[in-house]
From TrEMBL:
This is DUF1828 domain-containing protein. Residues 59-155 form the DUF1828 domain. InterPro entries: DUF1828 (IPR014960). It comes from the Bacteria. The lineage of its organism: Bacteria, Pseudomonadati, Planctomycetota, Planctomycetia, Gemmatales. Pfam families: DUF1828.
């Protein structure tokens, strides 16, 4: 977008078509003037039209699957000068789109940090899942619309990183949870089994009563679920000698059940040699770690 096209529309500016302030009166009453000025500022590819209590701004930008990126404009109804500020928002459509493209509805702390970093870069607020920015009096509406649109494009592009919820990201979530709840732990603990094979256990968690070894079972594939459970079963069997003695360790199989990939047989396979808990129930995981 050229610099010459940008600064034609301003929040709080009087319009030649109606003579009224942009911020004065209901939003829909000033819609024709606002939309015309937006077209002058951003070009004919940006289409503005009333939709309920919002003005919808249809942008020429697309989500990676071809869906059109729509933005919305509404007046702020609170504050010392009600109606003097406009908000440009995607109404949460970008995050909803991103959620539909990924296997897991949950976002890790690192994924949230990426989204927040994009918002910071483009001067956009991430609030209740929405990308939005205020357009204050004297500020170019075109510039604010472009900021929010560009943030939506950048966030949508994260789908490539989010399309599979990798085992490592789940382990990171578990590590964050253990840190938050002040459980001392060691990651990727190498232990020798009775067979002489070295196993790498995801977590060695130490609590006053009894320490635990934790394997995280996570996959996005139902076909791979059984082989993962069998691998963990083999590990617990080979490390079973560590569960006896004065410093006996507890074996915990933590299933990432955010995806419906596990069969009841997968849980039963490892429950004879370990305590089975599900990541969807952190309280049960905490209870298992604290068990004597």
């Amino acid at each position: 977008m050229s610099e010459e096209l940008m600064p034609t529309t301003f929040c709080g500016q009087r319009h030649s078509s109606g003579g009224a302030k942009l911020a004065a009166g209901p939003l829909l009453m000033m819609a024709p003037s606002f939309c015309e000025d937006l077209r002058q500022g951003l070009g004919a590819l940006f289409v503005c039209s009333p939709q309920g209590r919002y003005l919808r701004i249809r942008t020429p930008y697309l989500y990676p699957d071809g869906d059109v990126i729509d933005l919305f404009c509404h007046q702020e109804a609170v504050g010392p000068l009600p109606g003097e500020e406009l908000t440009i928002t995607d109404l949460g459509e970008t995050i909803r789109w991103l959620r539909l493209q990924t296997l897991s509805p949950k976002r890790s702390a690192k994924q949230r940090a990426l989204i927040e970093d994009i918002c910071l870069t483009h001067g956009v607020e991430f609030y209740k899942g929405m990308l939005q920015a205020r357009c204050r009096p004297g500020e170019s509406v075109a510039a604010v619309v472009l900021r929010v649109a560009q943030a939506a494009i950048r966030v949508a592009d994260l789908w490539l990183a989010f399309r599979t919820r990798s085992v490592e990201s789940v382990k990171d979530e578990v590590a964050d949870w253990l840190t938050k709840h002040q459980f001392p732990f060691e990651r990727e603990k190498k232990l020798a089994g009775r067979s002489g094979r070295t196993w790498v256990v995801d977590f060695h968690v130490r609590v006053p009563a009894r320490s635990s070894l934790v394997y995280v079972l996570s996959t996005g594939s139902r076909a791979a679920a059984r082989s993962i459970a069998e691998h963990v079963l083999a590990a617990w069997y080979d490390l079973n000698h560590l569960t006896v003695g004065p410093e006996a360790l507890q074996c915990v199989s933590l299933f990432d059940d955010t995806l419906d990939v596990w069969n009841p047989e997968d849980f039963r396979l490892v429950e004879s040699l370990s305590t089975v808990v599900k990541w969807s129930d952190p309280a049960e995981f905490q209870k298992a770690l604290l068990a004597a």
